[in-house]
């Protein structure tokens, strides 16, 4: 059971959240006409073995997207911030 | 090398089973090979076997960081089937099925391929339509498929929940009679023995830590026990493809996720086939030993940890009871996890990479085991000929740039949804 | 084997009716099924997996490999019950399993004769057969193998019992209620920390329960327990197994609430699953005794030494009258002495070359004859032990002198102890090997939130166990912020030789030729012999995982609790390596098998998944609707009138809508409120079409793509106010669209001032369609001007009905004059009923999803079957909606080359020849040529069109737009049917839209 400290709601079980995706990929600006930046954003991943910044959606809570730091090898949990407060 | 048969077992028994030889050697590595295959799971060993058998390339090493078959080969739910609909998948998986059907004889190793059939249950008229489409494409490609209505499914699988109480009533099922199960460990061991007999060196307990480069070309691997040179380096490390590709400077359309599997205590035969629930991600079969083997959803978050959490255990067991209420009092013996290369369209890669000298086999998502023979066969072809066979022609990395997503479920670029 | 007149923890005043294979066993309250079996001198209680060898009671705990039985009958039947942990209850019925005709005489035992041939890897080398390209030969053999395999027989009956889940939170979870666990709980409890103490047994005390009654130890347990029970912050759970430790400081526990009863009482659950969130945990799980490997070591009458002691002291059973005890450590001395005092003739074969007299003194006093430097080479006897062959041995366990035979009905063995490190291993992987204690123990690291204490950590004395338990309790309490004084550590009490002191790692007893005498087992349930390990080594299956998988050792229901170390030890010997170099396999949850239902709780049957119901649902059901699943929702499929099936009903309903008027519940559509000054910009980005020109009071159909440029969803969005929009999505994609919107707004588009909120449940919606729709609605919603001029298509207005404010959207999915009435959910049924009642004079009828589909197919609108995740706007003929003036989600990737290929299948209509109609999922082929491969396309939606009097279909056909008029073949291979069809425009009916604009 991953436990996530939602900045709004406090420490909650993963079952209240849905997993989103890698939070380090930056969405190209609207208006980006080149294809490759979009391919990289939508499809390609660093997929690190170790610390990972990732989006989770507190879908059964405050419905905020958060950026969680989590270790993919050990499942250790690091910092959790509101996505809207994380600089991309 | 002993040819395995009832007779050889009998002869060895008479001599107290003292004269068995090794199933494969434990050689010292040569300094250089034509091909170094990274990963001693089913796919890597099969690739080595077919390189030797089909292409006469025997100066091959398989480098494995742990023990053979210790990754997903030894952790999966052992289902084989060829019920794929998308062009690019259909004939690949059918090649695999045909190789399975002769694999025990080919390897002289009983991989216990048991074509006990597989049912994909449908729980709405829409699912029946989707099943019909899949079945029709299978049939148009010479693959067996049947569509059963509720009554026929009930006649064949009377122990499922057909009561008013079922949350998702069974409308029918698509059935492939040639699908079934195989003994996963035996696949690794059989290929290892076959490859070894043909001269392939299998090097266990040797972890690849980097590559040897000559300019922009990869010319070998660094391991924790010394360098090994190679003309071609082939990755068969699904679950860890991202990591090994990263060392070569590649970013893949892959996320690594952990997938749990479950087995109950052994019971006398209860389920004589493979059943996939259509209302949740769940499948069940029974091993020859008698354990009910269950599979379910991923743990959804990226993970290399080879262990899963309770929420998915609960979901999977709930699916089991919803589908087959009589499992209620049966007991879960063990649950474990493997780590999967989840690709962005749910389909694999068997391809040359943009890095000269590096070949990639990965991205197997849930479905690596059933693909093992064709994966090795096609990868061997790709390595030997430097071009894909038509059966793996679409399993390239650039398909996402081209817009050719091989998306069997239509889920889009969300790796944990495939 | 007999029950003693006094002693034990059984209540002789409460005899119980307990049977095995129809024979009554002398059982009392406090017995287990196994102790009752022993009391009844029932020696053969099971059969092994492969050779069907007779199996007796080997242990007194969860590690039991042999005494596996069928428990209870009927719909409460349970296979593979371990008799050693089944509490005896009045009315207990059990029987032998994996045997025919019964466990005492089992025909399957013939397998044993072939054991040399059934050696390791047997199945991999045989049954291959000479036949190419077929699996039939193996499958024929497999059918027999499968019947012989398995252990107990399951039932197809439905379980009548209930289960429940419970979440619990605590500071400290103490796993194990023995001395170490009690000490730990005491310390943590005194500090004020919230403590849960879980014990799998029905009594607390752990190893103390195996000691003679009335001792100092019992008083110790009682005192600690009394103090614990007085603490409100301590919860004690007995009959509760902590089966797994998981990430996030979560532990899974199963409490067997009613398994000690014939049936759960007073609606109580059978089992309760606890998900415990514990900041710290203390693993006080003790240790499991290891058997020794020698010939015949599996025969009924061979038992773990501590099990013999437990049966003697806890259950007042003399488990043998002529006993040979064999040990490589101190722990069996008490057993020997106590058995002798209880009247048995006891010989103790001490495997070590020398032991101090302080150890032997008590046993000798009690009359035990001790043979130093001796071991049991073989257990003899047919279906139970009759004698033991004892030999002098050297330090490696090899015979060094002449054997002698000692009559024996019990051979009690101790090969040392294995700490129960399983839960630690779940979290931290492989344990480490402690050479001194000759066992695997947890690797203790300061930052681990789970710490082991007591014999789970291989403590060497009782005082150390108490101290370690207490100290870990203090530490855990402090770590969770409870600084309160924990008081004095409880004193230790008098005890005999503690645990496995002095162990010499001798595991197997062999003859001078290095082989065991007779069949010597490592894994008792799976019949893995020491010779199988030897063979696996010869064949190169030398890593522990290969060894396990090739021989199946450790894969039985005890998961290697007894066999692991002995197998490893043998392999390390063969490889000339030390045990830690060979390594160990990883323990996986559950610690002991748990019922599937325990983790399911109430989530089965109808409650497997939540069901979403429209606020009008019950009207549909009451009025004869046949309901169907639509994702989580239930929707009316069709309203059958007398004698109608699906086909008759949907055709009638669809025709009725076009002729008169119909009403359909569309409350399941996703509804999202989009509010804020940048709402229009947001919609502009989300949808392919432009939104900046949409005026208040109007609505517009929109198409939405995924990031990769494929179509995700479609629906209409209304502009309610300047900054206020109301989006509708398909039923299936509502959650996805909302989550995607929230994601973009909170990550990439933070600058947009927009709020998105689901209002799906707040609003119900009724579509009213048909030529009479306007008349009906104008009549019902008096005062609303619904005229063509005042409310053209894609406009909305407000109205009231009995004070209920509703919004009426003019839009048509059916192609008829149609409106959607949006109603606050609580009033939806009332409005529906009013419309239905007032509509009678317009001959209104409700219609379901099937006829709704017919109507939309006639109009050529796409729905779920076409929006299947692999189709583009171009494929679906929706390209015209895309704005070229602005970027939108997916606008770049939709232009990738394969997606722009003009050959791609595109949406067409098909008029099917003949009377039967096509099946969705049929494949399209040109009129002539082979029907092979993937075809030219596929049929997505089909219906009989009452409006056209034809069978029609929507399909995706390669190059579709240029093939109008062509005849194609529609092949349904799986239904053995080939039809022909004419390719037409998918706008079958009223292509100019005159009816909806009426």
Please explain how this structure is put together:
The complex is a heterotrimer of chains A (88), B (418) and C (998). Helix content of chain A is 9%, strand content 38%. In chain A, the strands form two sheets. In chain A, strands 3-4-5-6 form a four-stranded antiparallel beta sheet, with no helix packed on it. In chain A, strands 1-2 form a two-stranded antiparallel sheet. In chain A, a hairpin with a 3-residue loop joins β1 and β2 (10-13). The model of chain A has no long low-confidence stretch (mean pLDDT 96). Chain A contains one helix and six strands; from the N terminus they run βββαβββ. With 88 residues, chain A is mainly beta. The longest helix of chain A is centred in the middle third of the chain and has 8 residues, at 35-42. Chain A has one domain: Folate-binding superfamily (Folate-binding fold, 2-Layer Sandwich). Chain B has 418 residues and is α/β, with parallel strands linked by helices. The model of chain B has no long low-confidence stretch (mean pLDDT 96). Helix content of chain B is 29%, strand content 27%. In chain B, α2 (42-55) packs parallel to α7 and α3 packs across α10. Chain B has helices at 6-14, 42-55, 90-101, 103-107, 125-140, 150-156, 184-197, 241-247, 310-323, 368-385, 399-402; strands spanning 32-38, 60-63, 79-80, 118-122, 146-149, 172-176, 180-181, 201-203, 208-214, 217-223, 226-236, 254-266, 274-277, 282-286, 291-302, 331-343, 349-352, 358-362. With 998 residues, chain C is of the alpha+beta class. Chain C folds into seven domains: 1-153, Roll (Ubiquitin-like (UB roll)); 163-287 and 419-479, FAD/NAD(P)-binding domain; 291-415, FAD/NAD(P)-binding domain (3-Layer(bba) Sandwich); 525-561 and 563-582, no CATH class; 632-668 and 763-847, 2-Layer Sandwich (Gyrase A, domain 2), CATH 3.30.1360; 670-758, Aminomethyltransferase beta-barrel domains (Alpha-Beta Plaits, 2-Layer Sandwich); 899-984, Beta Barrel (Elongation Factor Tu (Ef-tu), domain 3), CATH 2.40.30. In chain C, 22% of the residues lie in helices and 27% in strands. Chain C is built from 23 helices and 50 strands. In chain C, strands 9, 10, 11, 12, 13, 14 and 28 form a seven-stranded mixed beta sheet that branches. A six-stranded mixed beta sheet of chain C has the order 41-42-43-40-34-44, with helices on both faces. In chain C, strands 45-48-47-46-49-50 form a six-stranded antiparallel barrel. In chain C, β4 and β5 (54-55) form a beta hairpin. Chain C is elongated, with a radius of gyration of 38 Å. The chains are: A mainly beta (88), B alpha/beta (418), C alpha+beta (998). Chain A binds chain B through residues 1-2, 13-15, 18-19, 21-22, 35-36, 39-40, 42-49, 52, 54, 70, 72-75, and chain B through 240, 242-243, 246, 251-256, 300-305, 309-311, 344, 400-401, 413-414, 416. β16 (331-343) of chain B pairs antiparallel with β31 of chain C.
């Amino acid at each position: 059971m991953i436990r996530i400290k939602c900045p709004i709601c406090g420490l909650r079980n993963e079952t209240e959240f849905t997993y989103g995706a890698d939070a380090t990929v930056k969405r190209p600006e609207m208006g980006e006409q080149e294809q490759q930046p979009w391919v990289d954003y939508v499809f390609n991943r660093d997929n690190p073995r170790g610390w990972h910044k990732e989006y989770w959606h507190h879908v059964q809570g405050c419905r905020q997207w958060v950026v969680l730091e989590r270790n993919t090898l050990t499942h250790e949990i690091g910092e959790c911030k509101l996505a809207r407060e994380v600089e991309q | 090398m002993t040819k395995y048969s009832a007779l050889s077992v009998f002869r060895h028994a008479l001599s107290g089973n003292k004269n068995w030889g090794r199933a494969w050697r434990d050689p010292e590595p040569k300094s250089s090979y034509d091909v170094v295959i990274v990963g001693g799971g089913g796919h890597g060993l099969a690739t080595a076997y077919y390189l030797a058998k089909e292409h006469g390339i025997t100066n091959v090493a398989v480098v494995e960081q742990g023990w053979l078959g210790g990754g997903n080969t030894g952790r999966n739910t052992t289902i084989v089937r060829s019920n794929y609909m998308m062009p690019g998948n259909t004939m690949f998986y059918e090649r695999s099925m045909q190789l399975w059907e002769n694999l025990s004889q080919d390897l002289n190793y009983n991989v216990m391929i048991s074509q006990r059939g597989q049912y994909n249950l449908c729980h709405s008229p829409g699912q029946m339509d989707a099943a019909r489409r899949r079945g029709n494409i299978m049939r148009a490609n010479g693959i067996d498929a049947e569509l059963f209505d509720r009554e026929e499914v009930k006649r064949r699988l009377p122990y499922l929940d057909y009561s008013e109480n079922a949350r998702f009533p069974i409308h029918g099922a698509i059935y492939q009679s040639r699908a079934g199960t195989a003994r996963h460990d035996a696949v690794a061991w059989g290929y290892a023995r076959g490859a070894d007999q043909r001269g392939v060196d299998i090097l266990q307990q040797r972890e690849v830590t980097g590559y040897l480069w000559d300019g922009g070309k990869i010319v070998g691997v660094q391991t924790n026990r010394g360098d090994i040179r190679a003309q071609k380096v082939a990755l068969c490390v699904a679950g860890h493809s991202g990591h090994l590709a990263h060392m070569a400077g590649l970013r893949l359309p892959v996320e690594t996720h952990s997938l749990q599997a479950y087995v109950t205590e052994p019971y006398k035969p209860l389920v004589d086939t493979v059943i996939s629930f259509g209302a949740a991600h769940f499948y069940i079969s029974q091993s020859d030993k008698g354990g009910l083997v269950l599979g379910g959803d991923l743990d959804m978050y990226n993970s290399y940890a080879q262990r899963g959490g309770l929420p998915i255990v609960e979901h999977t067991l709930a699916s089991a009871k919803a589908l087959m209420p009589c499992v209620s009092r049966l007991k879960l013996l063990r649950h474990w996890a493997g780590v999967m290369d989840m690709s962005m369209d749910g389909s694999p890669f068997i391809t040359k990479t943009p890095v000269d000298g590096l070949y990639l086999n990965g991205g197997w998502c849930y479905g690596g085991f059933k693909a093992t023979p064709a994966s090795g066969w096609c990868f061997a072809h790709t390595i030997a000929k430097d071009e894909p066979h038509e059966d793996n022609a679409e399993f390239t990395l650039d398909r996402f740039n081209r817009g050719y997503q091989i998306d069997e479920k239509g889920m889009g670029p969300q790796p944990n949804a495939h | 084997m007999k029950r003693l007149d006094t002693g034990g923890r059984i209540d002789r005043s409460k005899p119980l009716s307990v049977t095995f294979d129809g024979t009554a066993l002398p059982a009392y309250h406090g017995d287990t099924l196994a102790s009752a079996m022993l009391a009844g001198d029932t020696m053969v209680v099971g059969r092994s997996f492969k050779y069907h060898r007779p199996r007796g009671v080997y242990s007194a705990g969860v590690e039991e490999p042999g005494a596996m039985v069928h428990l209870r009958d009927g719909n409460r039947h349970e296979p593979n019950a371990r008799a050693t942990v089944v509490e005896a209850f009045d009315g207990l019925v059990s029987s032998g399993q994996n045997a025919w005709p019964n466990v005492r005489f089992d025909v399957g035992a013939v397998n044993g004769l072939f054991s040399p041939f059934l050696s390791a890897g047997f199945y991999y080398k045989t049954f291959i057969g000479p036949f190419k390209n077929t699996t039939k030969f193996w499958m024929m053999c497999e059918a027999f193998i499968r019947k012989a395999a398995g252990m107990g027989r399951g039932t197809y009956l439905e379980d009548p019992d209930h289960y429940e889940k419970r979440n619990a939170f605590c500071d400290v979870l103490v796993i194990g209620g023995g001395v170490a666990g009690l000490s730990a709980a005491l310390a943590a409890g005194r500090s004020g920390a919230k403590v849960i103490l879980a014990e799998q047994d029905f009594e607390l005390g752990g190893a103390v329960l195996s000691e003679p009654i009335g001792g100092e130890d019992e008083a110790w347990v009682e005192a600690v327990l009394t103090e614990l029970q007085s603490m409100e912050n301590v919860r004690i759970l007995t009959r509760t197994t902590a089966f797994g430790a998981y990430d996030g400081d979560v532990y899974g526990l199963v409490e067997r609430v009613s398994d000690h009863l014939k049936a759960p009482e007073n609606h109580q659950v059978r089992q309760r699953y606890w998900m415990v969130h514990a900041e710290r945990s203390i693993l006080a799980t003790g240790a499991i005794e290891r058997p020794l490997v020698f010939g015949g070591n599996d025969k009924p009458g061979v038992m773990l030494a501590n099990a013999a002691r437990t049966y003697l002291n806890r259950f007042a059973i003399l488990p043998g009258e002529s006993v040979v005890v064999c040990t490589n450590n101190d722990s069996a001395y008490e057993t020997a002495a106590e058995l002798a005092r209880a009247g048995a003739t006891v010989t103790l074969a001490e495997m070590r070359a020398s032991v101090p007299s302080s150890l032997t003194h008590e046993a000798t006093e009690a009359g035990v004859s001790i043979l130093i430097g001796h071991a049991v080479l073989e257990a003899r006897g047919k279906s139970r032990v009759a004698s033991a062959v004892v030999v002098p041995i050297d330090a490696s366990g090899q015979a060094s002198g002449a054997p002698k035979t000692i009559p024996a009905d019990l051979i009690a063995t101790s090969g040392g102890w294995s700490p129960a490190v399983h839960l630690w291993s779940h979290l931290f992987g492989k344990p480490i090997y402690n050479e001194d204690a000759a066992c695997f123990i947890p690797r203790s690291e300061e930052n681990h939130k789970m710490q082991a204490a007591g014999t789970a950590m291989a403590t060497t004395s009782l005082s150390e166990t108490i101290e370690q338990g207490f100290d870990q309790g203090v530490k855990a309490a402090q770590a969770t912020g409870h600084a309160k004084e924990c008081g004095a550590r409880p004193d230790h009490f008098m005890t005999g030789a503690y645990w496995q002191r002095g162990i010499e790692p001798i595991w197997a007893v062999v003859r001078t030729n290095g082989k065991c005498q007779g069949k010597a087992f490592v894994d008792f349930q799976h019949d893995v012999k020491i010779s199988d390990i030897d063979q696996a080594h010869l064949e190169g299956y030398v890593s522990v995982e290969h060894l396990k998988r090739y021989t199946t050792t450790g894969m039985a229901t005890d998961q290697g609790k007894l066999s692991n170390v002995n197998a490893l030890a043998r392999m390390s010997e063969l490889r000339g390596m030390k045990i830690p170099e060979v390594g160990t396999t990883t323990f996986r949850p559950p610690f002991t098998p748990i019922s599937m239902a325990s983790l399911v709780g109430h989530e089965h049957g109808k409650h497997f998944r939540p069901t979403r119901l429209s606020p009008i649902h019950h009207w549909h059901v009451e009025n004869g609707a046949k309901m169907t699943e639509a994702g989580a929702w239930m929707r009316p499929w069709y309203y059958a009138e007398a004698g109608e099936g699906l086909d008759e009903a949907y055709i009638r309903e669809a025709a009725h809508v076009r002729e008169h008027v119909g009403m359909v519940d569309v409350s399941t559509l996703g509804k999202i409120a989009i509010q804020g000054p940048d709402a229009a910009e947001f919609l502009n980005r989300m949808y392919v079409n432009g939104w900046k020109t949409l005026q208040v009071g109007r609505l517009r159909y929109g198409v939405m793509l995924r990031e990769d440029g494929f179509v995700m969803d479609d629906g209409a969005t209304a502009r309610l106010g300047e900054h206020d929009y109301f989006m509708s999505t398909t039923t299936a994609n509502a959650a996805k669209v909302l989550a995607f919107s929230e994601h973009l707004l909170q990550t990439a588009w933070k600058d947009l001032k927009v709020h998105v909120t689901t209002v799906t449940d707040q609003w119900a919606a009724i579509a009213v369609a048909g030529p009479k729709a306007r008349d009906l609605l104008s009549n019902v919603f008096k005062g609303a001007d619904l005229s063509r001029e005042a409310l053209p298509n894609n406009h909305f207005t407000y109205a009231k009905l009995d004070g209920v404010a509703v919004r009426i959207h003019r839009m048509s999915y059916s192609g008829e004059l149609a409106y959607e009435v949006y109603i606050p959910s609580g009033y939806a049924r009332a409005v529906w009923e009013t419309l239905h009642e007032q509509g009678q004079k317009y001959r209104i009828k409700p219609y379901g999803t099937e006829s709704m589909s017919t109507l939309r197919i006639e109009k050529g609108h796409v729905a779920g079957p076409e929006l299947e995740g692999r189709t583009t706007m171009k494929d679906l003929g929706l390209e015209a909606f895309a704005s070229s003036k602005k970027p939108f989600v997916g606008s770049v990737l939709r232009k990738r080359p394969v997606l722009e290929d003009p050959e791609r299948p595109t949406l067409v209509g098909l008029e099917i020849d003949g009377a039967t109609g096509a099946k969705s999922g049929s494949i399209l082929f040109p009129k002539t040529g082979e029907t092979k491969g993937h075809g030219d396309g596929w049929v997505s939606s089909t219906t009989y069109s009452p409006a056209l009097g034809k069978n029609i279909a929507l399909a995706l056909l390669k190059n579709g737009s240029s093939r109008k008029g062509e005849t194609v073949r529609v092949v349904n291979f799986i239904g053995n049917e080939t039809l022909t069809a004419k390719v037409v425009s998918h706008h079958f009916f009223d292509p100019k839209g005159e009816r909806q604009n009426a």
